[in-house]
Amino acid sequence: MNKFIKENWFKITLLVILILTIGGTFYWNQYLPREIKRNCFIEAKNSKEQAVSADNNATMNGLAITRSDYEKIFKNDYETCLKRNGF
Predict the structure, then answer these.
(1) Alpha helix (H) ranges present in the chain?
(2) CA-CA distance, 44 to 56, in Å (whole number)?
(3) Tell me, what's the pLDDT at 37?
(4) DSSP reduced 3-state for 61
(5) What gap in Å lies between CA 81 and CA 87, rounded to an integer?
(6) What is the SS3 assignment for 65?
(7) Residue 62 or residue 37, greater confidence
(8) Which band of pLDDT confidence, cut at 50, 70 and 90, is reported for residue 58?
(9) Where are the domains of the chain?
């Protein structure tokens, strides 16, 4: 085994670099953006739910927020989060 490594150290090094490059590329272009979008979706959903609970209190005072208003809140918060994270 030691002889094999001494004879093929250059090929082994290139193989390790290739594997690390492919892994890094996958992380940067696939996994990381998916996680950012998922976290932004959760953040926007929580913001929308807070608006709904605040609206339940406001409805008692005679104010009402429509469904399209909730969708605007969600969309705005989602896009803001994406911009904050580099999209």
Answers:
(1) 2-7, 9-26, 32-60, 67-84
(2) 18
(3) 95
(4) coil
(5) 9
(6) coil
(7) 37
(8) low
(9) 2-84
